[in-house]
Amino acid sequence: MLPSSGVPSISQLGPPASAVLAVFIWGASDFSGGFASKRGNAFVVTAFSHLCAFALMVVIALAQGGVFPSRASILWALAAGAVGGFSLAIFYRSLAAGQMGLTAPVAALLGAAIPTLADIAMEGAPHRWTMAGFILAIVAIWLITRPEPSGANDETGHPKGLAMAALAGVGFAGFYLCIHQASGSSEWLATISRVGSFTTTSIAVLATRAPLTLPRPSILFAVVAGCLDITGSALFIFANQHGRLDEAVVITSLYPAVTVLLARIVLKEHFSRWKFVGLLAALAAVPLIAAG
User: Fold this and answer.
1) Residue 141 lies in a domain
2) Is residue 4 one of the residues assigned to a domain?
């Protein structure tokens, strides 16, 4: 059933369903953004994709007629967008520089672990499953980052783009924590957050004097990435508002599985046996971290 405007409403979904749907949407978005950044500047790709995302979501927000956020919530959404947008650009660079199937899980792991640690600091000691998740995460990161001679490694023997992916993961955690403080329509919060993300990435484009032109394939994939990313963000915000932060974060942080699958199918990426085990361990650690 659709609302009178004819636009499907996110509120028709439950929090778990919204989070699971965001997994597939964000996974496809990251693949598209990383693919676009292989031929174009990551900051330009991100700024352009967020401009497209803003145009899409403002139309949806107006059609839904949801509750407009308060001044404090607007500031939190802008802060979330600013941190998240810059982090996403760095993440796209990490995806373009290395193997998507190795860098994506690291960013997701840190993005999920930090908000969970913050929740632990406020709510008390972690559950035994959470501790098991942290131990598994440490093992996973060691397996993924262990030196191995390969064309996908840098001069130190570590996978390319891994440091940028880790930095992006910290930024993603900042997005989660900031948007958690905001209240109002998930569509409006997602729209406002893109104002912050477009601002920071545009400043980065100007500061680095990056060329503003993008190859045609990059433009197409940037549009797709932006539209998918904003949709996934709106779904996450809804899941966060109507459920627990750690549950929303941990479920949506499974999105690298989709990115990995697409990288394997489309780009024919191959991993060594131990790095593949590390990848599986990282994906398995995410739900364990917040299981308590």
Assistant:
1) yes
2) no
Q: DSSP assignment, residue 253?
A: T
> Maximum CA pair distance of the chain?
58
Q: Quick: pLDDT tens for 77-134.
A: 999 999 999 998 888 888 777 666 667 778 888 888 888 778 777 766 667 777 787 7
Domains contained in the chain, number: 1
1 lies in some domain:
no
Residues 288 and 116: beta-carbon distance below 8 Å: no
| Degrees to nearest 5, angle at CA 241 with 21 and 170 | 75
Tell me if residue 126 falls in helix, strand or coil: coil
Contact between residue 157 and residue 149 where contact means Cβ atoms under 8 Å apart: yes
Enclosing domain of residue 74:
14-289
Query: Is there a domain that residue 272 lies in?
Result: yes
Q: Which pTM was predicted?
A: 0.77
**Residue 141 in contact with residue 106, Cβ under 8 Å?**
yes
Burial class for 280, CB neighbours closer than 10 Å (0-12, 13-18, 19+): middle
